[in-house]
Design brief:
- Belongs to the class-IV pyridoxal-phosphate-dependent aminotransferase family.
- The protein is α+β, with helices and mostly antiparallel strands.
- The chain is globular and about 55 Å long.
- Strands 7, 8, 9, 10, 11, 12, 13, 14 and 15 form a nine-stranded mixed beta sheet that branches.
Length: 291
Amino acid sequence: MARVAYVNGRWLDQRVASVNIEDRGYQFGDGIYEVVHVFRGRFVDEDRHLARLDRSLHEIRLPEPMPRAALLQVMRELVRRNRVAEGLLYMQVTRGVSRRDHAFPRRPVPPALVMTVKRIPPYPKDVDAWAASAVTRPDLRWARRDIKSVNLLPNVLARQEAREAGATEAILFDERTGVVTEGAATSFWIVDERGALRTSRLGHAILPGCTREALVAELAEAGIAHEEGDFTLGDARRAREAFLTSATSFVKPITNLDGEPVGEGGVGPVTRRLFDLFARHVQGGPRNAPA
């Protein structure tokens, strides 16, 4: 069955779907995006993703493409038309089509909205098989990483370097201070030498991950302490455990960093517990509304 895409109010065969060459997302990267996990027909952490979408739109002064109720209707119809039970929904909003000029169009044009959905493998059941390796790379991204912008070239280059090194993710750090920020497309966590669960504090240098936020809520509910603040590359290399979170990584153990084992080189007890905790959240947590 051909995949169906939503492009500016039209349902199109994804093989022939296209946007105007003067779309500002194509010309300037003038737009934002979201990726939502679909699990058994439900949008996982739907409210968090749509809140982040609204925030990103506000930060770059881009109007909503449609009211939230209408947007949800399009999202659900896209999933229905593609018969996807488990997958990833991608949406992108740009400043629309206008004569090429760096400044915003003098006469406002409608935002452009594109959505696609694809099937993905079933949610992982074996945390040990889900473990991966990572490399560290300097963080070369722009200053406003808290906006989920389509400007992803530094992320792309870092992820490609990880792939060429045989790793799954690149963990980014500030070259000046040695402070770890996040993964190229993930949030990064460690269990440090003291046994403390740590992740970076939010700010302009960190994308507010929806999976990160969901896990923080689950930690609070389970009474598991964690710290949010700076930690260095040295802290990461001395950590007992490390893992990633994202809409596609869920809770993903990192057992090897820059070719060296993290801790004892296997999935640690904290990561194992959080993998199970988040799996329960995805598979039926009350924060996940039906699609």
